[in-house]
Amino acid sequence: MGDTNARKYHLATELVYIDSEAVKDNYNAASVPIYQTATFKQQNADGSGGEYDYSRSGNPTRTAVESHIAKIMRAERAFVVSTGMTALDVILRLVKTGQEIIAGDDLYGGTNRLLTYVSQYSGVKVHNVDTTEVARVEERLDPVKTRLVLLESPTNPLIKIADIRTIADRVHKVCPSALVVVDNTMMSPYLQNTLEYGADIEYHSGTKYLSGHHDLMAGVIGCRAAQVAEQIYFVINASGSGLGPFDSWLLLRGVKTLGIRMEKQQSNAILVADFLEAQGLKVHYPGLKSNAQYELHRSLSSGPGAVLSFETGDVALSERIVEGARLWGISVSFGCVNSLISMPCKMSHASIPVEVRKQRRLPEDLIRLCVGIEHPDDLIGDLANALGKAGVELKGELRK
Ligand SMILES: *Cc1c(COP(=O)(O)O)cnc(C)c1O
Question: What class of enzyme is it (predicted)?
Answer without folding.
Answer: lyase
